[in-house]
Specification:
The protein is of the alpha/beta class. It is 40% helix and 18% strand. It has 2 domains: 14-24 and 132-239 and 302-308, Periplasmic binding protein-like II (D-Maltodextrin-Binding Protein, domain 2), CATH 3.40.190; 48-130 and 241-288, Periplasmic binding protein-like II (D-Maltodextrin-Binding Protein, domain 2, 3-Layer(aba) Sandwich). The chain is built from 12 helices and 13 strands.
């Protein structure tokens, strides 16, 4: 895949603090796993380790997620350790191995983890009155493109190889056109952050990007200096919102306690205030079937790839 070679673009990439990477997928590095595997039954004194995927919220939003996990620990009477990871593949592997207990993940990694090792749903956020979200295809506000098809031969930013809104949805859209990222775009990159993809488009580092609607809307309220330099040229179908999940081997009593903390957080002043900062109204139960449309896309894309071999 071609690299961006113009000096001015290289400068832009440097100022984005590494937000745009080459389109080769990052290998999962588990050499620094944080701790030994947890068994189903753990002493009450051992911290619960909960990860927040780097694509779930802009970096600045981590403070609210950290506050919410501290709040969760207070309600449980047990220390909760915040785990920060940007790579969904790494998070799923850490959950599979029992090195973390729970995580906020995207719908795509949930579908993969549920199929591969029994990743379990605990709750889902309600944002803007819904438990769904969309993929936005964005370009610079001055870009004349008005449709996704007009990005042929351009540069494009995905977020993570496992992201639904930031990779699967646009790949599915291309498959419907009998295309693939490798044949459609001049070059493409993984930013490992929806906010980073927004900035990459806003600064002209790439021509277009696929981003999580929730994060674009969050950024539009918090930092319109970036979103105001972008425009949405296509909005996808609705998909099940990124959920909160646990590993299957976690103590059932702990799972239920976590569920109750999440489902009732909006009922007290402290919890409600933290959720407000997260731009979440409340957490609610959600069914596995809410993610069937993601499964269907994955199946369709895989079928198309196989047919071309």
């Amino acid at each position: 895949m071609k690299k961006l070679c113009l000096f001015v673009i290289a400068v832009l990439l440097f100022t984005l603090s590494g937000c745009v990477e080459n389109n080769s997928e990052k290998k999962i590095d588990l050499s620094q796993k944080a701790g030994t595997k947890n068994t189903a039954e753990q002493s009450a004194g051992k911290p619960l380790r909960i990860a927040v995927g780097g694509m779930i919220t802009p970096r600045e939003g981590f403070v609210y997620y950290k506050e919410f996990l501290d709040y969760t620990g207070e309600k449980l009477g047990r220390k909760v350790e915040f785990v920060d990871r940007e790579d969904y593949g790494e998070i799923n592997e850490l959950i599979r191995e029992g090195d973390i207990d729970a995580a906020f993940v995207c719908g795509g990694p949930y579908v993969d983890g549920h199929k591969e090792f029994g990743l379990e749903l605990i709750a889902a956020p309600v944002a803007y009155g819904e438990t769904v979200y969309y993929s936005y295809i964005i370009v610079h506000v001055n870009n004349p493109a008005r449709t996704f098809e007009e990005l042929r031969g351009k540069t494009f930013a995905f977020t993570d190889p496992l992201s639904n809104s930031g990779k699967l949805v646009p790949t599915y859209m291309l498959a419907k056109m009998n295309e693939a990222p490798e044949t459609f775009f001049r070059s493409f990159y993984y930013t490992h952050g929806h906010d980073k993809s927004i900035k990459a488009v806003a600064t002209g580092a790439v021509d277009g990007a696929a981003v999580d609607s929730l994060i674009w809307e969050y950024a539009n309220r918090k930092h319109p200096e970036f979103t105001s330099k972008t425009k949405i040229i296509q909005k996808s179908s609705r998909y099940g919102i990124p959920p909160f999940v646990t590993r299957p081997g976690l103590n059932p009593k702990t799972k239920e306690a976590l569920r109750q903390v999440f489902l009732n957080a909006h009922n007290d002043v402290e919890g409600r205030e933290i959720l407000k900062g997260m731009l979440i109204e409340r957490f609610v139960p959600i069914e596995d079937s809410s993610y069937d449309s993601i499964r269907e896309m994955k199946h369709w894309v895989a079928k198309q790839k196989h047919a071309k071999k």
